[in-house]
Amino acid sequence: MKFTPVLLLIHVLFSLMFSSAYAEHVIKFDTPPAALEKWYKPGNKRQVWLHTMFRLRREMQAINEYAKENNKPAMKKWIKRLDKDYNKIADMVPEWEKDIKPRLLPELEMFVKKGDTLRVAKTLKMIKRTCNDCHESYQPVVTAIYRSPSYDDLKVKSLKGSPHSFKDNMNELSQSVNQILIALDDGHKSTALQARLNLKKQLHNLGDSCSNCHKKDAYPKERILGKATLKKLDSLETSIGKWRVKESKQLMGKLAVTVCARCHNTHRIISDLRNTFLPPK
Ligand code: HEC
Ligand code: HEC
Ligand code: HEC
């Protein structure tokens, strides 16, 4: 027991030290070269850059594993592949030529031939360091920019029937949601009923946009805007009609979680991240 005040003091000291350290912690990422765009959809038919990376990881793993068994023919086979893919980095993005060390590959092969396991391990580590250095500066940004879809060019039908942007549709949705909640609070039944009808229409129109990305897969739309959601929207009409305020607010809460938040968790978080990282036009 008598240690408790000491522990407490240490705890306070540590939290003070670290909270000030965190306050000054700045995360920095570099903007990736524009050349990268060609190696991702829609600039390319495939995610070429990413698949080159997957191969590099497999090749490094194979060499590391065969190094433990000193299996020279197998190492030779995989070093040849690694050499090819590693050099593709600079072929694809010339700006990154200075960040790789292709001379390490023939060196690696030479050490394997000589059976110098110590230097083989050391060289593999040096190659791995070039992977890590680049990843630290660029990987999260590249993932956010090139592997997440854009909503900018999508059009959704507005309440009036004319096409408007995805963002405008979102702001309309938000307005209807709050209009219902305000009207419920202030006793305006007909306003609440009209806003519910608007919300239903807006969600229906939004539903037409899912196939832009999900194509013929009906499951994603069913999960968020399917039967369960329609049922909640119908219950909401009944519940507002009978002026059951508490029940109506609860239904609104459920809709916000199962429709808005559920979709935002997969789409909006990534979209916001992408827009933050996107270099200014
Ligand atoms: C497709 C699934 C999806 C559903 C369902 C959805 N949202 Fe969104 N929402 C998004 C995406 C994606 C963005 C980011 C759009 C962008 O930045 O272009 C967004 C952005 C927003 C924004 C910010 C708009 C702005 O001006 O930046 C609001 C507000 C919003 N949504 C409200 C709602 C409400 C309220 C609901 C439920 C009634 C809802 N959303 C349902 C995907 C969805
Ligand atoms: C000059 C930059 C650069 C170098 C060098 C580099 N990479 Fe990458 N790597 C990237 C970028 C950028 C990404 C992010 C790609 C994405 O998310 O689409 C990435 C992603 C990856 C991924 C994908 C991780 C995942 O699961 O999403 C793997 C695996 C990978 N790299 C392996 C390697 C290996 C192994 C090496 C070294 C032999 C290497 N990379 C060297 C830039 C580099
Ligand atoms: C701009 C492209 C885009 C649009 C538009 C879009 N999504 Fe998605 N959605 C994605 C991507 C990318 C993923 C993650 C990868 C995947 O599952 O396909 C995803 C994942 C999902 C998931 C989780 C994965 C799953 O299959 O269960 C659901 C649910 C979903 N979307 C529903 C919707 C609904 C509903 C709409 C229309 C209101 C919609 N999406 C519109 C791109 C989009």
Write a structural description.
This protein is an all-alpha fold and 281 residues long. The protein has two domains: 113 residues; 123 residues, Four Helix Bundle (Hemerythrin (Met), subunit A), CATH 1.20.120. 72% of the residues lie in helices and 2% in strands. The protein has eleven helices and two strands. It has a two-stranded antiparallel ribbon. Strand 1 and strand 2 form a beta hairpin. It is elongated, with a radius of gyration of 28 Å. The N terminus is likely disordered. It binds heme C (3 copies). One heme C binds next to helix 2, helix 3 and helix 5.
Number of helices: 11
Q: Uncertain runs with pLDDT below 50, 5 residues or more?
A: 1-17
Q: Strand order across the biggest sheet?
A: 1-2
CA-CA gap between termini: 62 Å
Q: Order of SSEs, N→C?
A: HHHHHEEHHHHHH
- The percent of residues in helical segments reads over 70%
- What is the strand content? under 5%
What best-fitting shape do the alpha-carbon axes yield?
A: elongated
Q: What's the CATH topology label of the largest domain? A: Four Helix Bundle (Hemerythrin (Met), subunit A)
- Largest sheet geometry: 2 strands, antiparallel
